[in-house]
Amino acid sequence: QVHVVESGGGLVQAGGSLRLSCAASGTVLHFMSMGWYRQIPGKQRELVASIGSDGTTVYADSVKGRFTISRANAKNTVYLQMNNLKPEDTGRYYCDGHIVSVDGTVHWGQGTQVTVSS
């Protein structure tokens, strides 16, 4: 089985920075394209950034120039460096993507809360 855990969220003032981590542990067979998503109560989950297995990145327009997604394949981990945070970045951040476990079971995490105060 594979377990995915997000971490690194917290409360920060506008203009501050946070670094989120998404780590997959267990019997990981393939750790491929991954993305960070943001969920705000009452709204649909939206893609913030994604990274392919080849390192190709895609960003939502609202975070371009402020957020950077990266990956450490040897650690089965994806990061999201968030700089110059704004109150509208507040939400619960989840990672999701293509992970294959030896037995086909992946337990996705509960996300990590990011709150930006003005």
Please bin the fraction of helical residues: under 10%
**SS element count, helices:** 0
* Secondary structural class: mainly beta
Uncertain residue ranges: none
Q: Proportion of β residues?
A: over 45%
Order of helical and strand elements: EEEEEEEEEEE
Measured between the Cα atoms of the first and last residue, the distance is 41 Å
Q: Major sheet: order of its strands?
A: 2-11-9-4-5-6
Largest sheet: 6 strands, mixed
Explain the overall architecture:
The structure is a single chain. The protein is mostly beta strands. The protein has strands spanning 2-7, 10-13, 18-26, 28-39, 46-51, 57-59, 67-72, 77-82, 91-101, 106-107, 112-117. 0% of the residues lie in helices and 60% in strands.
Record keyword descriptors for this entry.
single chain, 118 residues, mainly beta, 6-stranded mixed beta sheet, 5-stranded mixed beta sheet, 0% helix, globular
What can be said about this structure in brief?
The protein has 118 residues and is an all-beta fold. 0% of the residues lie in helices and 60% in strands. It has no helices and eleven strands.
